[in-house]
Protein backbone atom coordinates (compact mmCIF):
# COMPACT_ATOMS: atom_id res chain seq x y z
CA UNK A 1 0.00 0.00 0.00
CA UNK A 2 2.88 2.34 0.78
CA UNK A 3 4.07 2.15 -2.84
CA UNK A 4 1.05 4.14 -3.99
CA UNK A 5 0.24 6.12 -0.85
CA UNK A 6 1.44 9.54 -2.06
CA UNK A 7 0.44 9.12 -5.70
CA UNK A 8 -2.64 10.41 -7.45
CA UNK A 9 -4.85 8.10 -9.51
CA UNK A 10 -3.45 9.70 -12.65
CA UNK A 11 0.16 9.06 -11.56
CA UNK A 12 -0.60 5.43 -10.72
CA UNK A 13 -2.16 4.87 -14.13
CA UNK A 14 0.98 6.26 -15.78
CA UNK A 15 2.88 3.34 -14.27
CA UNK A 16 0.86 0.99 -16.47
CA UNK A 17 -2.09 -1.41 -16.26
CA UNK A 18 -0.36 -3.87 -13.91
CA UNK A 19 0.42 -1.20 -11.28
CA UNK A 20 -3.08 0.24 -11.58
CA UNK A 21 -4.77 -3.12 -11.15
CA UNK A 22 -2.57 -3.99 -8.18
CA UNK A 23 -3.54 -0.69 -6.54
CA UNK A 24 -7.23 -1.40 -7.17
CA UNK A 25 -6.85 -4.79 -5.49
CA UNK A 26 -5.18 -3.18 -2.48
CA UNK A 27 -7.80 -0.41 -2.26
CA UNK A 28 -11.10 -2.12 -3.22
CA UNK A 29 -13.26 0.58 -1.60
CA UNK A 30 -11.66 3.49 -3.48
CA UNK A 31 -13.59 4.83 -6.48
CA UNK A 32 -10.89 6.65 -8.45
CA UNK A 33 -11.52 9.80 -10.45
CA UNK A 34 -9.79 10.47 -13.75
CA UNK A 35 -12.32 13.04 -14.88
CA UNK A 36 -11.08 15.20 -17.72
CA UNK A 37 -7.79 13.30 -18.10
CA UNK A 38 -6.13 13.01 -21.51
CA UNK A 39 -5.69 9.29 -22.17
CA UNK A 40 -5.55 9.46 -25.95
CA UNK A 41 -4.03 6.37 -27.59
CA UNK A 42 -3.17 4.89 -24.19
CA UNK A 43 -2.69 1.13 -23.81
CA UNK A 44 -5.29 0.21 -21.19
CA UNK A 45 -5.97 -3.44 -21.92
CA UNK A 46 -7.51 -5.40 -19.04
CA UNK A 47 -7.43 -2.32 -16.80
CA UNK A 48 -9.86 -2.34 -13.89
CA UNK A 49 -11.84 0.90 -14.26
CA UNK A 50 -14.92 -0.45 -12.48
CA UNK A 51 -16.83 2.31 -10.64
CA UNK A 52 -14.27 4.90 -11.84
CA UNK A 53 -15.15 8.46 -12.77
CA UNK A 54 -14.01 8.91 -16.37
CA UNK A 55 -16.43 11.68 -17.28
CA UNK A 56 -15.12 14.17 -19.86
CA UNK A 57 -12.04 11.99 -20.38
CA UNK A 58 -10.26 11.89 -23.73
CA UNK A 59 -9.91 8.22 -24.67
CA UNK A 60 -9.57 8.72 -28.41
CA UNK A 61 -8.03 5.60 -30.00
CA UNK A 62 -7.32 4.15 -26.56
CA UNK A 63 -7.00 0.37 -26.31
CA UNK A 64 -9.50 -0.79 -23.68
CA UNK A 65 -9.81 -4.35 -24.91
CA UNK A 66 -10.96 -6.68 -22.09
CA UNK A 67 -11.05 -3.75 -19.65
CA UNK A 68 -13.49 -3.71 -16.73
CA UNK A 69 -15.68 -0.59 -16.93
CA UNK A 70 -18.63 -1.93 -14.99
CA UNK A 71 -20.51 0.90 -13.25
CA UNK A 72 -18.01 3.41 -14.65
CA UNK A 73 -18.96 7.04 -15.24
CA UNK A 74 -18.11 7.95 -18.85
CA UNK A 75 -20.51 10.79 -19.53
CA UNK A 76 -19.27 13.12 -22.29
CA UNK A 77 -16.09 11.05 -22.73
CA UNK A 78 -14.44 11.01 -26.13
CA UNK A 79 -13.95 7.40 -27.22
CA UNK A 80 -13.58 8.05 -30.93
CA UNK A 81 -12.03 4.98 -32.60
CA UNK A 82 -11.35 3.42 -29.20
CA UNK A 83 -10.89 -0.35 -28.98
CA UNK A 84 -13.47 -1.79 -26.60
CA UNK A 85 -13.51 -5.34 -27.90
CA UNK A 86 -15.10 -7.68 -25.30
CA UNK A 87 -14.99 -4.84 -22.74
CA UNK A 88 -17.26 -5.02 -19.69
CA UNK A 89 -19.46 -1.90 -19.67
CA UNK A 90 -22.39 -3.25 -17.71
CA UNK A 91 -24.38 -0.60 -15.82
CA UNK A 92 -21.97 2.09 -17.07
CA UNK A 93 -23.05 5.64 -17.90
CA UNK A 94 -22.04 6.87 -21.36
CA UNK A 95 -24.49 9.73 -21.74
CA UNK A 96 -23.48 12.20 -24.47
CA UNK A 97 -20.23 10.29 -25.06
CA UNK A 98 -18.60 10.11 -28.49
CA UNK A 99 -17.95 6.60 -29.77
CA UNK A 100 -17.65 7.32 -33.48
CA UNK A 101 -16.04 4.35 -35.25
CA UNK A 102 -15.30 2.70 -31.90
CA UNK A 103 -14.89 -1.09 -31.82
CA UNK A 104 -17.38 -2.52 -29.31
CA UNK A 105 -17.47 -6.00 -30.81
CA UNK A 106 -18.76 -8.54 -28.27
CA UNK A 107 -18.80 -5.87 -25.54
CA UNK A 108 -21.19 -6.25 -22.61
CA UNK A 109 -23.39 -3.16 -22.29
CA UNK A 110 -26.22 -4.67 -20.27
CA UNK A 111 -28.22 -1.85 -18.63
CA UNK A 112 -25.71 0.74 -19.85
CA UNK A 113 -26.96 4.30 -20.44
CA UNK A 114 -25.97 5.58 -23.90
CA UNK A 115 -28.56 8.34 -24.12
CA UNK A 116 -27.58 11.10 -26.56
CA UNK A 117 -24.32 9.28 -27.34
CA UNK A 118 -22.79 9.29 -30.83
CA UNK A 119 -21.95 5.81 -32.16
CA UNK A 120 -21.89 6.62 -35.84
CA UNK A 121 -20.14 3.85 -37.82
CA UNK A 122 -19.33 2.04 -34.57
CA UNK A 123 -18.76 -1.73 -34.53
CA UNK A 124 -21.20 -3.34 -32.10
CA UNK A 125 -21.66 -6.74 -33.68
CA UNK A 126 -22.40 -9.55 -31.23
CA UNK A 127 -22.47 -7.11 -28.29
CA UNK A 128 -25.03 -7.39 -25.50
CA UNK A 129 -27.22 -4.31 -24.98
CA UNK A 130 -30.02 -6.01 -23.09
CA UNK A 131 -32.05 -3.44 -21.11
CA UNK A 132 -29.68 -0.69 -22.30
CA UNK A 133 -30.86 2.92 -22.66
CA UNK A 134 -30.18 4.43 -26.08
CA UNK A 135 -32.67 7.29 -26.07
CA UNK A 136 -31.99 9.60 -29.07
CA UNK A 137 -28.62 7.89 -29.65
CA UNK A 138 -26.90 8.37 -33.01
CA UNK A 139 -26.23 4.92 -34.51
CA UNK A 140 -26.08 5.93 -38.17
CA UNK A 141 -24.27 3.32 -40.27
CA UNK A 142 -23.35 1.34 -37.14
CA UNK A 143 -22.80 -2.42 -37.30
CA UNK A 144 -25.32 -3.95 -34.91
CA UNK A 145 -25.48 -7.35 -36.53
CA UNK A 146 -26.29 -10.24 -34.21
CA UNK A 147 -26.65 -7.82 -31.27
CA UNK A 148 -28.81 -8.42 -28.18
CA UNK A 149 -31.15 -5.43 -27.73
CA UNK A 150 -33.84 -7.17 -25.72
CA UNK A 151 -36.05 -4.62 -23.90
CA UNK A 152 -33.66 -1.82 -24.93
CA UNK A 153 -34.90 1.78 -24.90
CA UNK A 154 -34.34 2.97 -28.47
CA UNK A 155 -36.87 5.80 -28.56
CA UNK A 156 -36.06 8.41 -31.21
CA UNK A 157 -32.78 6.62 -32.02
CA UNK A 158 -31.15 7.29 -35.40
CA UNK A 159 -30.44 3.96 -37.12
CA UNK A 160 -30.18 5.32 -40.65
CA UNK A 161 -28.28 2.82 -42.82
CA UNK A 162 -27.37 0.73 -39.75
CA UNK A 163 -26.96 -3.05 -40.02
CA UNK A 164 -29.14 -4.98 -37.55
CA UNK A 165 -29.09 -8.29 -39.37
CA UNK A 166 -30.05 -11.19 -37.05
CA UNK A 167 -30.30 -8.73 -34.12
CA UNK A 168 -32.60 -9.59 -31.20
CA UNK A 169 -34.90 -6.65 -30.42
CA UNK A 170 -37.64 -8.50 -28.55
CA UNK A 171 -39.78 -6.11 -26.48
CA UNK A 172 -37.51 -3.18 -27.45
CA UNK A 173 -38.97 0.34 -27.64
CA UNK A 174 -38.23 1.94 -31.02
CA UNK A 175 -41.05 4.46 -31.02
CA UNK A 176 -40.27 7.44 -33.27
CA UNK A 177 -36.98 5.78 -34.30
CA UNK A 178 -35.44 6.69 -37.66
CA UNK A 179 -34.48 3.44 -39.39
CA UNK A 180 -34.59 4.43 -43.06
CA UNK A 181 -32.33 2.32 -45.29
CA UNK A 182 -31.45 0.13 -42.28
CA UNK A 183 -30.85 -3.61 -42.57
CA UNK A 184 -33.05 -5.83 -40.36
CA UNK A 185 -32.62 -9.07 -42.33
CA UNK A 186 -33.59 -11.98 -40.10
CA UNK A 187 -33.92 -9.70 -37.07
CA UNK A 188 -36.27 -10.56 -34.19
CA UNK A 189 -38.67 -7.74 -33.28
CA UNK A 190 -41.36 -9.75 -31.51
CA UNK A 191 -43.64 -7.48 -29.44
CA UNK A 192 -41.35 -4.52 -30.10
CA UNK A 193 -42.83 -1.01 -30.05
CA UNK A 194 -42.23 0.79 -33.36
CA UNK A 195 -44.98 3.39 -33.02
CA UNK A 196 -44.41 6.07 -35.68
CA UNK A 197 -40.98 4.63 -36.51
CA UNK A 198 -39.58 5.39 -39.96
CA UNK A 199 -38.41 2.22 -41.74
CA UNK A 200 -38.74 3.56 -45.27
CA UNK A 201 -36.57 1.70 -47.78
CA UNK A 202 -35.43 -0.58 -44.97
CA UNK A 203 -34.68 -4.26 -45.52
CA UNK A 204 -36.75 -6.45 -43.19
CA UNK A 205 -36.60 -9.60 -45.28
CA UNK A 206 -37.67 -12.63 -43.16
CA UNK A 207 -37.69 -10.45 -40.02
CA UNK A 208 -39.90 -11.60 -37.15
CA UNK A 209 -42.32 -8.82 -36.15
CA UNK A 210 -44.90 -11.03 -34.46
CA UNK A 211 -47.15 -9.00 -32.17
CA UNK A 212 -45.18 -5.81 -32.77
CA UNK A 213 -46.79 -2.38 -32.42
CA UNK A 214 -46.29 -0.74 -35.82
CA UNK A 215 -49.09 1.81 -35.52
CA UNK A 216 -48.51 4.77 -37.87
CA UNK A 217 -45.05 3.45 -38.77
CA UNK A 218 -43.63 4.20 -42.23
CA UNK A 219 -42.51 1.30 -44.44
CA UNK A 220 -42.53 3.14 -47.76
CA UNK A 221 -40.66 1.02 -50.30
CA UNK A 222 -39.45 -1.37 -47.58
CA UNK A 223 -38.49 -4.99 -48.22
CA UNK A 224 -40.69 -7.24 -46.07
CA UNK A 225 -40.40 -10.38 -48.17
CA UNK A 226 -41.23 -13.40 -46.02
CA UNK A 227 -41.55 -11.26 -42.89
CA UNK A 228 -43.62 -12.58 -39.99
CA UNK A 229 -46.24 -9.98 -39.05
CA UNK A 230 -48.61 -12.37 -37.31
CA UNK A 231 -50.80 -10.46 -34.83
CA UNK A 232 -48.88 -7.23 -35.51
CA UNK A 233 -50.63 -3.87 -35.20
CA UNK A 234 -50.21 -1.88 -38.42
CA UNK A 235 -53.12 0.52 -37.94
CA UNK A 236 -52.67 3.56 -40.20
CA UNK A 237 -49.17 2.43 -41.15
CA UNK A 238 -47.74 3.57 -44.48
CA UNK A 239 -46.72 0.56 -46.57
CA UNK A 240 -46.90 2.24 -49.97
CA UNK A 241 -44.77 0.42 -52.56
CA UNK A 242 -43.61 -2.05 -49.89
CA UNK A 243 -42.63 -5.57 -50.93
CA UNK A 244 -44.64 -8.03 -48.81
CA UNK A 245 -44.36 -11.10 -50.99
CA UNK A 246 -44.93 -14.30 -49.01
CA UNK A 247 -45.24 -12.29 -45.80
CA UNK A 248 -47.32 -13.71 -42.95
CA UNK A 249 -50.06 -11.21 -42.07
CA UNK A 250 -52.37 -13.59 -40.25
CA UNK A 251 -54.75 -11.80 -37.87
CA UNK A 252 -52.77 -8.61 -38.53
CA UNK A 253 -54.47 -5.28 -37.94
CA UNK A 254 -54.09 -3.18 -41.10
CA UNK A 255 -57.04 -0.89 -40.41
CA UNK A 256 -56.62 2.37 -42.34
CA UNK A 257 -53.16 1.32 -43.59
CA UNK A 258 -51.77 2.67 -46.85
CA UNK A 259 -50.84 -0.28 -49.08
CA UNK A 260 -50.98 1.60 -52.39
CA UNK A 261 -48.74 -0.12 -54.92
CA UNK A 262 -47.62 -2.73 -52.38
CA UNK A 263 -46.70 -6.22 -53.53
CA UNK A 264 -48.66 -8.76 -51.46
CA UNK A 265 -48.41 -11.67 -53.85
CA UNK A 266 -48.53 -15.03 -52.04
CA UNK A 267 -48.93 -13.22 -48.70
CA UNK A 268 -51.03 -14.83 -45.99
CA UNK A 269 -53.76 -12.37 -44.94
CA UNK A 270 -56.01 -14.89 -43.20
CA UNK A 271 -58.34 -13.10 -40.76
CA UNK A 272 -56.46 -9.84 -41.31
CA UNK A 273 -58.27 -6.54 -40.82
CA UNK A 274 -58.02 -4.36 -43.93
CA UNK A 275 -60.90 -2.11 -42.94
CA UNK A 276 -60.64 1.23 -44.79
CA UNK A 277 -57.15 0.28 -46.01
CA UNK A 278 -55.89 1.85 -49.22
CA UNK A 279 -54.93 -0.97 -51.62
CA UNK A 280 -54.88 1.11 -54.78
CA UNK A 281 -52.78 -0.68 -57.40
CA UNK A 282 -51.63 -3.35 -54.92
CA UNK A 283 -50.70 -6.84 -56.09
CA UNK A 284 -52.65 -9.58 -54.28
CA UNK A 285 -52.04 -12.35 -56.77
CA UNK A 286 -52.16 -15.77 -55.07
CA UNK A 287 -52.58 -14.07 -51.69
CA UNK A 288 -54.65 -15.84 -49.02
CA UNK A 289 -57.55 -13.57 -47.99
CA UNK A 290 -59.54 -16.21 -46.11
CA UNK A 291 -61.88 -14.43 -43.66
CA UNK A 292 -60.02 -11.15 -44.16
CA UNK A 293 -62.10 -8.03 -43.45
CA UNK A 294 -62.02 -5.61 -46.40
CA UNK A 295 -64.93 -3.39 -45.33
CA UNK A 296 -64.47 0.08 -46.80
CA UNK A 297 -61.11 -0.81 -48.36
CA UNK A 298 -60.03 1.02 -51.54
CA UNK A 299 -59.44 -1.65 -54.19
CA UNK A 300 -59.00 0.44 -57.33
CA UNK A 301 -56.66 -1.30 -59.79
CA UNK A 302 -55.87 -4.14 -57.38
CA UNK A 303 -54.58 -7.41 -58.83
CA UNK A 304 -56.83 -9.98 -57.14
CA UNK A 305 -55.72 -13.42 -55.88
CA UNK A 306 -57.00 -15.08 -59.06
CA UNK A 307 -55.02 -12.67 -61.24
CA UNK A 308 -58.00 -10.53 -62.31
CA UNK A 309 -57.77 -6.75 -62.09
CA UNK A 310 -60.27 -4.90 -59.93
CA UNK A 311 -61.81 -1.99 -61.80
Automatic annotation (TrEMBL):
Highest taxon of source: Bacteria
Name recorded for this polypeptide: Pentapeptide repeat-containing protein
Amino acid sequence: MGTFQSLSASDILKRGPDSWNRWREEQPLVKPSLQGEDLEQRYLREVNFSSCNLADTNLTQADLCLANLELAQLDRANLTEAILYTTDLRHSSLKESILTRADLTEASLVKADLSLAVLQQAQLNRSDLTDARLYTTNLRQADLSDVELIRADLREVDLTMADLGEADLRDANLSFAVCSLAQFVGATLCHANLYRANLSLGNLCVANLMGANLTKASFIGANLIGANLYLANLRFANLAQADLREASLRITNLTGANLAGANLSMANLTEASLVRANLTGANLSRANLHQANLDGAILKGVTLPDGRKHP
